[in-house]
Amino acid sequence: QKATLKLNSKGLTTAGKVAGALGVGVDVVRRALAALGSEQRRRDADLDGDTAELVAMEIGRTLEVVRAVKAARVVKDSVEEVDAKAALLRAETLEREASDAFEKAASQYPSGDDWSALPLRPPTVAVLGHVDHGKTTLLDALRGTSTEEAGGITQSLSAFTVGSTTFLDTPGHAAFTAMRQASTHAVDCGVVVVAADDGVMPQTQEAVKQCRDAQASIIVCVTKCDVCDVKEDDLRLQLLEQCGLATEKDGGDAPLVRVSAKNNDLDELRTTLELVAEVSDLRADPSARARGAVLDVSSDAKSGLTVDGVVRWGTLRKGDVIVCGDWHGKIRSVVGDPLGAQTKEAGPGAPVRFSAALSSEGGGPLEGQFVVVEDAATARSVASLRGRAIQARRSAAEARSVADRVAVSVDDEEEETQVLRPPVVLKVATDAEAKACEAALQALPSQRAVADIIKCDVGAVTPSDVELASTFDAPIFAFNVGASGSVREACRRREVPYTRHDIVYSLVDDVAAYLSSKLPPDRISKDVARAEVLQLFTLNNGSTVIGCRIVEGTFPASAGVRVARSGEVIETDARGVASLRRVKDVVSEVAKGLECGVGLHSSEVSGLVKEGDVLEAFVVEERPADLGGGGNVT
User: Which of the residues 94, 105, 256, 438 could staple to 220 if both were Cys, CB 3.0 to 4.6 A apart?
Assistant: First the structure.
C-alpha cells in the first residue's frame, strides 16, 4: 500500500514523520538510514524528500512524497498594498503636522547675538554604562551619599543636582533599555562608565550609541581603578573597535578619565565635566515658558499623575499648561526635584517632579519632550494633532499587517510549534518600569510558551485587578508596588496567585517558572547501566530470557532498554524490563559485575537480540518544562 508524506515549505521532513507515514517504529527508520549511510538518525533530524523515499524502499514500502509549492506573491499594486502605502503616507503627513505645531507652540528661542546675552544653563549629565560597573557608587561619591538598592542594581532613572550640574543615574541591566533611552531627551553630556576589570560590554556600546543619537558630548570614565591595573591601551582599542569611539589620545573628541569612587579620587572627572560644559556654551532664558524632558511617570489615587523630568529652557511653575505628545493639561503643583527637595518652581537645567491633571487625545505614551504653551486651547489643539497622528500610525501598522498576510502564499504551510500563551497581570510603580518589565518578559525564550500580558498598569494592586485575574485564571505579578490587606484577602478568596518583587530578574524568573508550570514536564532519558548479552534462553511459553552480565552501572527492574550491536542502537523497548532475576529470585536491581536474567515486554525486541549484543538500560525523568525547547527525549 502506498503511503503519502507531505514535506514542509523548505522541502524537509523528519525521521519521526517518515515512520508515522509508513506505520513503523522510528527505530526501523533509523536502521534504514544507517543502512543507507546517513548520519541523520535522530527522531527530529531533518530529511529531504529523496532520502525519505529511499528509506521507504529500504524497508520494502512505497512512499509518495508531496512537495509544497509556493504560490507567487501578490503584485505590488494589490488593493491591500495600495491601502497600506496610503495609510503610511497619511500617518507621516500627520506626524509632520503635529511636530510643526508642537515646535510652533514652543518656539521662543533667540538667535544670533541674542543667544550670547542669555545666562549659562547648568549641564545635564547622564551616567551610563554596563550593569555593576560602578555608576551608582560614582554618583554617591560625587554627592556624598550611600545608596542601597534592591538586588544591588539600579532599577530606576533618577535625577539630582550636585553643585551646578544635574546628574541622571541610569540602570545598566539589559532589561532597562527603554528607561535609558528616556534619558537621552535631557542629556548634554554622557559619562560612559567602564569598569577597569571588565572592559567594554554590551551596555557600554549601547551607551555610546545613545549619546551619539542625542548629539551629546562623551566622557569615558574608567572606574574601579583601585582594585586592578588599568590597561588603557587595550581599553582604548576596545572602544575603537567595538563602539567606534576614538578618545582624545587616538585623535577623537572623547576624554578618558580614571576614577576611584571608594578613594574619592574624582578630581579629574570634575575638571573634565567643567571643561566640557564651558566648551558646550549651554544657555537658556529663565524668564521664558518652560520646555523639558520627561524621565518617568507614576500614578496613584491621591495625587494622580506625577511626572519626573528635567527643565531644559525657561521656568516651570504651578498652573502652567503643558503639552507632551498627545497629552495636555495644567500643572497642579511643582512638588520638588525627584529626590524630594522642596521647591515652588524649576528653572533651566533643574530636575523636577510635578503633579498634573492631564488627558490624552489618542492613547499615546506620556514620554519625550514637554512644553508649556500659552493656554488650554493651544494645548488641546497641539495634542489633538498628535493624537490623530498616533491613531493614523496604528491604522498604518494594521494595514501593513493585512497587506503582508495577503502577500504570503496560502500554500506556504511551514509548520509552526503551537505556542502556549498563559495570561498574566502585571502591576508596576512607574511607566518606565512597565516598559522595562514588558521588554524583559518578551525576551524570555518563546518557542513553547509566552506570557500574555492582559494588563500592565501603574499603581498598587486593586480589587478590579483581582477580578480581571480571576476571570482569566491569571496570576498577578507586582514590581515595586504592593496590595492592601483587603486586596490580598480577595486574592486568597478568589484563588488568584499574587507575588511581589523588587528585583527585575526575580520577577522574570518567577514568570518563567509560571510559564513552565503550564507546560507538560519534559521527559529526559538518562542512561543508568549497560549489560553484555551472554546467552539466550527460550522458556516453555515461548518467551525469551536474556542472560547478561552488568558491565556498567546498576541495572534496575524499572528501566527501558535499548539493544545495541557494534555500537549502533538497533531497537528500543521503552516499556523495557518485564522481569529481572538473579538465579531464580526476582530482584529490583542488579549491580555491576553480577549476572542476571532479563525478560523484556516486547517479544519483537527480544527476538532481535543476539549473543554479544549490549542492553542499554535507561530511565525517563520528568523535569520542569524548558521554555526554549526541550520536550520529550527518549
Answer: 256
